[in-house]
Amino acid sequence: MKKLFYTMGLLLLMASCSNDYTDWANPQSNHEDPATVSLTIQPAEAIDFAKLTTDSVQLFTPVVKAAEGSVNTYTVVLYNTDKSDSKALKADALGKVKSAELEEAVLQLFGHRPVARTIDLDVTAYTIIEGQSIKNQASTKAIITPEAPVIENTYYLVGGINGWDNNNKDFPVENSGADVYKDPVFTITLTAAQVGNGVEFKLNPVSGIGSWDKCYTASKDEAEGKIAGGNAGGNLKVEAVENAKYYKLEFNMLDLTFKVTPMSDPELYLTGNHYDWGKTWKQLVPVYGTTDLFWTIVYLHAGEQFKFAPQADWGNDFGMQATIHEEANAGVSDTDGNITIANAGWYQLTVTNGASRSVTISKPKVYLIGNTVGSWGIEDVNLFTEPTTEDGVFVSKAFAKADEVRMCVSVPGHDWWQSEFIVTAKGKIDYRGKGGDQTRVNVKAGQKAYLNFSKGTGKYQ
């Protein structure tokens, strides 16, 4: 318990320094007894937003001893775990706050994960005695559980694409690798062949493999785009769309919504003798904001032949028919229209597949950019080292600052963000391509980025 005695001189001083205090109407003698106020703050019962039904909720219980007729108002500050962030709320004379405001503050400080949080509270009380505002402070804790669905790390499509086998894991649906309550959007891309004339399915969480009990289906109330667990509704569906090449499925497991985006943007693929002439097609990355420009970083072998096609199949393919710009001493030659390389090594291929076609073969230039290196321009001082072997790793300089990592390759005539990429929290190289701003990953000062373009993986350490 705190017990503060405020003498006339102290009150007058506070009144002159702060708007929180008003002047005494009738100055008193120092011989009179000072105003006395004591404040004790006690914790309230634990709050679970999944069970809360009222507009206001008891956040703490105040006990104030002061003159009869006093009025008390409160400001309460909530802190995150390491007290690096805080939120302030107004409380009434009973220690109650608005439920919606409290929930918003907790979500901003701790996220949506539905676990009980023990939260530090600092409470400031203002007690009005004879028109004067007297300030008092105390601290306590609150236990609060946000309301949110349980989100698992991986889900799987089960339906017409895999014979309705609920043990099947051929179609994993995953997020970026970030905490699932910070990035609750899980995605998978299906080809036009997989969708066919349309396909029905359910979404099974990893904990439900082998069972239908936990499957997500269309919401029983038939709200458009809503899904629900417990296998309670009808099948989810993807309708075939004319000329669509792919279908991007997105599941927001926090909002419990589902949407499908048909995609038909131009694409470009590479194959050759190293890929068994069409058994494998390596997809190039589109340059953001363009319709016909693509790039990739690839290890080419001595004597390797390759060519390109606008789909993962033969048709309208090209090699030496394009204008070739050799900038890396690769030793390019023509073998029956295929591009042949004499000198093994790592190369960046930048390809235009428009009204005119061109292929630029250059040395790969991979850069760190942004706050981690203190520069938002492409500078050679931030260039990755290049390996000499096919299984080698590109290595960055050490990060000068802890922040969100940004990386890119250099595509002449285009800004860095048009060819940027990151390594996700799951260790996959994720190219922006034509997509929006990527889920950011934070790194520590002194760490480096390691990129294995052969495997499409990377790490920070």
UniProtKB/TrEMBL annotation:
<dbReference type="Pfam" id="PF16411">
    <property type="entry name" value="SusF_SusE"/>
</dbReference>
<protein>
    <submittedName>
        <fullName>Uncharacterized protein</fullName>
    </submittedName>
</protein>
<dbReference type="InterPro" id="IPR032187">
    <property type="entry name" value="SusF/SusE-like_C"/>
</dbReference>
<feature type="domain" description="Outer membrane protein SusF/SusE-like C-terminal">
    <location>
        <begin position="365"/>
        <end position="459"/>
    </location>
</feature>
<dbReference type="GO" id="GO:2001070">
    <property type="term" value="F:starch binding"/>
</dbReference>
<dbReference type="InterPro" id="IPR033408">
    <property type="entry name" value="SusF_N"/>
</dbReference>
<feature type="domain" description="Outer membrane protein SusF/SusE-like C-terminal">
    <location>
        <begin position="267"/>
        <end position="353"/>
    </location>
</feature>
<dbReference type="GO" id="GO:0019867">
    <property type="term" value="C:outer membrane"/>
</dbReference>
<dbReference type="Pfam" id="PF17142">
    <property type="entry name" value="SusF_N"/>
</dbReference>
<feature type="domain" description="Outer membrane protein SusF N-terminal">
    <location>
        <begin position="17"/>
        <end position="142"/>
    </location>
</feature>
